[in-house]
Amino acid sequence: MASEHGTEISHFETFFNFAIGCDEPKNFIFFVKREANDYTKISVDLNDFKKCTIINKGRVVKFNNETQTVIEKLALQLIPINGKADIQLEFCNESDNIELYGEMQAIKKWKDLIDEAIS
C-alpha cells in the first residue's frame, strides 16, 4: 500500500483484525481491516484533511443485574478540507465480536498523531 504512493511506513500498530500505520514525513496514514473473507484498505493523504474526531458509539446493556457498555462503533473520522465525504477508519464495530485490548488507547494516540500532522 505504501509503495503505491511513493511512501514508507515509519510507524505502525497491529491488532486482532486491523492495522494502522503512517509515513510521518509525507503525512500519509494507511489502514487495513479484515472483515469476513475480505480486507478493507484505506490510504489517506493527511494534507487533504482539516480535522480528526473519534467516533465512540455504544449502548448500555443489563445482564444478570450488571450493566455493561457494548461498543457499537469505534472509529477515527477524517474531515476533508474540500468538502468531500469524510473518511472513517473503523477500529471495531459490534459485528466484529471482539473484546477491546488496547483499541481505546490506540485510537486516542492515532488521533493525536493525526491532529499534529494536520495542524
Provide keyphrases for this structure:
single chain; mainly beta; 1 helix; 119 residues; 4-stranded antiparallel sheet; 3-stranded antiparallel sheet
How would you describe this structure to a colleague?
The protein is mainly beta. The chain has one domain. It has 1 helix and 7 strands; from the N terminus they run βββββββα. It has one helix spanning 103-118, and strands at 11-14, 18-23, 28-35, 38-45, 49-63, 66-80, 87-93. The strands form 2 sheets. A 4-stranded antiparallel beta sheet has the order 1-2-3-4, with no helix packed on it. β5 and β6 (66-80) form a beta hairpin. The longest helix is centred in the C-terminal third of the chain and has 16 residues, at 103-118. It is globular, with a radius of gyration of 15 Å. The two termini are 25 Å apart. 21% of the residues are buried.
Compact overview of the structure:
This protein is mainly beta and 119 residues long. The protein has one helix at residues 103-118, and strands at residues 11-14, 18-23, 28-35, 38-45, 49-63, 66-80, 87-93.
Largest sheet: 4 strands, antiparallel
Q: What percent strand?
A: over 45%
- What spatial form do the alpha-carbon principal axes imply? globular
Query: Mean pLDDT score, rounded?
Result: 88
Q: Helix- and strand-based class?
A: mainly beta
Number of helices, where a helix is a run of at least 4 consecutive DSSP H or I residues? 1
Helix content: 10-25%
Q: What string, H for helix and E for strand, traces the elements in order?
A: EEEEEEEH
Roughly how many Å apart are the termini? 25 Å
